[in-house]
Amino acid sequence: MRRSALVLAGALLLLAALAPVLTPFDPDRTALLARLRPPLGFGGDWLHPLGTDPLGRDMAARCLYGLRTSLAIAVLGSLIGTLAGVAVGLAAGIRGGRLDALLMLLVDVQLALPYLLLVLMALAVFGSGLMLLIPLVSLAGWEHTARLVRGQVLSLREQGFVEAAIAIGAAPLRITWRHVLPQLLPLLAVQVSLGVPHVMLLESSLSFLGIGVQPPTASLGRMIGEGQAQMLGAWWIVAEPTLLMLAVALVVQMVGDGLRRR
Amino acid sequence: MGVFLRRKLLRAAVTVAMVLLLAFAGARLSGSPFDMVADGGLAAEDRAALEAEFGLNRPLPVQFAFYVAQLAQGQFGRSIAQRRPVLTIYAEAAPVTLRLAGAALLITVLAGVPLGVAAAVFEGGSIGRMAATLAMLGNAVPHFLMGLLLALLFGLVLGWLPIIGQGGWRNFVLPSFTLAAGLTAAIARFVAAELRAALAADFIRTARAGGIGEARIRFVLALRNALLPALTVVGLHLGGLLAGSLIIENVFAMRGIGQVFIGAVQQRDYPVLQFGVMALALVVVAANMVVDVLYAWADPRIRRAQPR
């Protein structure tokens, strides 16, 4: 089960990375004469194996590039978010005192407020754009990482090698960098991989609502949201990205489960 | 219990104050609300007059105090886009969302607990594996995707249930199951893990040695210890449930609080947004308080524990 999940994850990453090689079409170029072609097997042809959308854009190309957008945001976002959570957790755990109290208060506030609401409010205030969207979705779940890291730091501080470093007068920054951070690396690797589905869920949900990734850029959530209205007539416009998204969600979950169990 | 309660109340109050500050700052960060009123902006003197009228030319701390004072008097402001009191707009939409969330919560408890028990008690067997798979599916699939799939299957292919609107109870079946899916999975996983831990505990061994029946051990003694932590998980996820409702109302075209909020985001209707964030935070904080108190009432170890 674990190996098959990894193989599938690799295949999805390859599909996303090789999108420009796999399809000759520009995912954003419209061709009004080739509108709403059905997919292969339902009256379509080999030119557009997955059919075309109401603007004549090739569905195969849009699915591939949409997968690319969603995965890129998810992986990048998870890295950024984990780093942010680590920074907060380290600061709270190492400095302690007032800073610790303040940061943990912020964590409590975040726990009381659904993150989706904060993101929606921020997007309403500043407008949608990738430069804002990526940091916003990245920070989903920062409070969990921060708590986890703080707890680890607190227990590491009791360890002999950290006490020894403090005793010989090493600066807090040096202790953090040389002694604490390396111990945290395995934990961080797991956190990054667990963050990927979180970020992807948030991005796709926002895009589905029409306030995430903006047109014409293809993102799986956006394609599903836009295609929903045509479910009865041109079912493939919504069915194809939905199936792809489902596959991605399941594979990511399986990989995450495997990692957690280790 | 008194000290415990006071500590919890203080924390809740601080949280609510922070949320108020956040809602206030969020609306002010974007500049003057009058930028949105007229195309091409207002003349400088008109804007100054309006800002003076609404108190926006005063220092920020004064404005914040004024804002809080208004809230305390029940003045929640008027929607910029609809020109109606914010409270009326939310009051109209609330029944749909509350019904949706209530039904989802019920489904979560009625389905999640048995699923978790099955996963733990029949671990390794086909029932256990099926429960675990169901839990994984519910956890992995995003709300809007689950909603679409259910709508496709039960609405369009089988034609059993309506997929749009909010007329009768039948309209609520698919949305509430969609909303419940993720939390049900979380509860099932949690109950399973807790039940496994409880079954391995010393008091269970003692009970077995004392000759108590296996069914009673599993479903009464162990389960009672596993259910209490599950209560906390439900409380913690309440905010997520309400946030999920934002998306699901969109999928099933229901006019609830979520649609009001999303509409306000698209029109940058700050008074509506402010109230939404505030009300939701209040509900979540209150729910967490209730769970904490219930928990402490049921488990004396917690109420005597020292603050960290």
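qc> The first helix of chain B runs from residue 2 to 29.
qc> done
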